[in-house]
Amino acid sequence: MRRSSAGCSCAGRPCRIHWARIQTPSEAPVPDPIVPIDASQRLQVERATEHFVAEAARHLQLSLPPVAVVFDLSGTAAGMFSVQGRRCQIRYNPWIFALHFAENLRHTVPHEVAHYAVYRRWGQRRLRPHGPEWRWLMDCFGVPPRVTFDLDLAGVPVRRQRRYPYRCACREHAVSTVRHRRVLRGQASYRCRDCDSELTPVAERLASSD
């Protein structure tokens, strides 16, 4: 049985990203892939997103424009808030929502909307992804400000990626191929959510010490 532990990470400029990441130890045989959520369920997710955006605007006492919602996320992420240029969007994983619809409607939707609202209110300031601003909004929503939660992901299609060793000031991290390439192209940087220091490739650190 494959289970998940969901949380968020933050990418540096020019693309700021927050997502619910799943850890998937391989154990049992992989079942048949599940069917993603249908149009009526997508509409529920969109309306829930609009509801929490309105709630965030009320608590922050500011006008929040609608955020684009897409259902193109795959792999082990349940949801992701991202900013590219001036475009904000929340991406949801239709397969994980299909498997645990009520749970993700209650937790993933407000989780990502809170990231969107924090970005709109405090902009490009360097804030911790799940810092006091985010946690305060989750409390306002009446949703526990959980960074991680366990879900069974049996049947969710997962693409295996090579992981690259990175280090911060406190420990080593395994970074996906996509993130590693973004770092190499200078499109993103990543910070540890524990010590808030920037992640650097292990090979780069070794080379710089010669």
UniProtKB/TrEMBL annotation:
InterPro entries: SprT-like_domain (IPR006640). It comes from the Bacteria. Pfam families: SprT-like. One of its GO terms (biological process) is response to stress. Residues 46-202 form the SprT-like domain. SMART domains: SprT. PANTHER family: PROTEIN SPRT. This is Metallopeptidase (SprT family). The lineage of its organism: Bacteria, Pseudomonadati, Pseudomonadota, Gammaproteobacteria, Cellvibrionales.
